[in-house]
Amino acid sequence: MKTPVRRSERVDQESEPPKVTTPLALRAAREKKHCSKTRSVRVRREYPLTLTSTAEMRLMPPEFFQIDALDLAPRLLGKFLRRDNVVLRITEVEAYRPNDSACHGRAGVTPRTAPIFGPGGHAYVYLCYGLHMMLNIVADKDGVGAAVLIRSCSPVTGLETIQERRGQKTDKPLLLNGPGKVGQALGLSTEWSHHPLYSPGGLEVLDGGEDVEKVLVGPRVGIDYALPEHVSALWRFAIADTPWISAPKNTLKPL
């Protein structure tokens, strides 16, 4: 005579999942298990995006800036911009030289362009399209008229301040991948023109001891009005192993 199964045993047997025996079912079970785990874990982007602490950073001296803009531009990659609690790492730049038909200095000294003719190491901030504050670092000697445009950066400190100034609650490259975004993140205005970037306080350019090994080069952006030889000149530089660069990216090639 068959022994009756008690109710508690029946409940245990009914709640036990059926055994998987076929290869197809085994694979489906593994994938289901894997998916449930990945949904439960939120992967957060690493922040800050540098190994250098702000305590290790030091001001760049004036002579660092007083060289040809084409030489200064790649040397600025990996350097840092600091204003108040915000520190940004420079990831993309463009060089503008004297006798360059894309350079603001091509028309000579005007009230707007006067800062670019100052000595290297000062800021030149101009308003673009009535909307965007564009930060340039003046290059070369006094009177030359050359600068490096800061096109993109990555955040190091002050993310909440950056997000508030930008009006965007994100930590993705969209936050700082453009010159107008950099100017906004730093809270700049044209009044910052002529400011010495090698002096403590205000807006500073700092070295953190990080070497940039791989660099991308390409033509500059938005200068279709310039002469053909200047439009095609490879005077745009970017760090190769970072997503914190602006569009277009397909025109950038390894140096």
Description:
The chain contains seven helices and ten strands. It is an alpha+beta fold and 255 residues long. Strands 1, 2, 3, 4, 5, 6, 7, 8, 9 and 10 form a ten-stranded antiparallel beta sheet that branches. The N and C termini lie far apart (86 Å).
Q: Profile the largest sheet.
A: 10 strands, antiparallel
Low-pLDDT residue spans: 1-47
**Range of helix content:** 10-25%
| Radius of gyration over C-alpha positions, nearest whole angstrom | 27 Å
Strand content: 15-25%
Arithmetic mean pLDDT? 85
Features:
10 strands, 255 residues, alpha+beta, disordered N terminus
Structure described in brief:
This protein has 255 residues and is an alpha+beta fold. 23% of the residues lie in helices and 23% in strands.
Helix and strand arrangement:
Elements: H1 7-15, H2 23-40, E1 58-59, H3 62-65, H4 69-76, E2 80-83, E3 86-96, E4 123-128, E5 132-139, E6 146-157, H5 159-166, H6 179-185, E7 203-207, E8 215-218, H7 228-231, E9 236-239, E10 253-254
Antiparallel strand pairs: 1-7, 2-3, 2-7, 3-6, 3-9, 4-5, 5-6, 8-9, 8-10
